[in-house]
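Researcher: We're teaching a course module on how sequence relates to structure. For the next exercise, students receive a sequence and then see the predicted structure as C-alpha cells, so they can try to spot secondary structure elements on their own. Here is the exercise chain.
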Amino acid sequence: MAEEAGTGADGACAWAERLGWTFGLIAEDPAARGAALAHLAEARRKVADALAYSNEMWQLTRPLGADEQYRERAFLQARQRHRQAQKCSLPDGVWGGPEDGDLAAWPGLPYLLLFLEWEARYPLEWTHHAKEWGTKQSLIRAVARADQEEALGTKLTDLVEIVVHRAYRCKDREYVRVARAVDSAALRGRLDQAADSDSPWARRHAGYVLWLLDRPDLPNTRRVWQTWVAGEASALL
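Model: And here is the predicted structure for the students to work with:
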C-alpha cells in the first residue's frame, strides 16, 4: 500500500535538510558518489521497512472497518512514518509535485532535475540503485510542461545534450518533448555538433531530434522513429 511523499508545500530549507546529500549522486568524485549511494541505500531501506510496518498495521486494523481504521492512532502513525521516510529518499521524495502546480517555482525542482541528471550521467549506477522507468517518464513529461524560465531551460538543454550522446535507454524518446519545449538556437547548435560527431548514437539521436524540431506537428511515436531510422522519413510527410 504505497503512500505519496506529500512534500508539495515544504520550503527550500526543508528540502535541503532531507535531500541535500543527493547532489553527491552526480559528483565527479567516485568517493563522493559512493557515499551518496550508501546514504541512498539506507534511505530506501527505511522506506521499505516503514512500508512493511504500515501494511502490517493496515492488516491488523482492517476488522475495525474503513472509517474507524483510518482514525486508529497506531495505523495513522505507521502511515506518517512511511511518508516521512519517503521524503528522505529518491525517487519517492520528488513524487507528487507542487500543490499549486507551479513546477518552475517549486523548491523540489532541483531534486527532480537531479534524479534525471543522475540517470543521464551515471545510468548504470542509477539502474542498480534506483531504477524507476515510470518515474523517469513522468518527470520528463512534467518538466516539458513546466513554464520554461531561463534557469530551467538551461538545465533541460544540458540534459537533452547528454542524452543524445549516449546509447538509447528506456524512455529516452520522451526527451523529444523537452527539446520541443526548450527549442532555441543554443539547443540546435549543440544538436548540430552532436549530429556531426564521430558517435553513431549521437548522429542518429541528434539528427532525429533536429528533424522533429522542424516538424512540430509530427508525433514522436515509435513508428515515426523506426521509419526515420530506416531512412524513410519522406514517407511520413
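Model: If you want an answer key for the exercise: Residues 1-6 have pLDDT under 50 and may be disordered. DSSP finds twelve helices and no strands in the chain.
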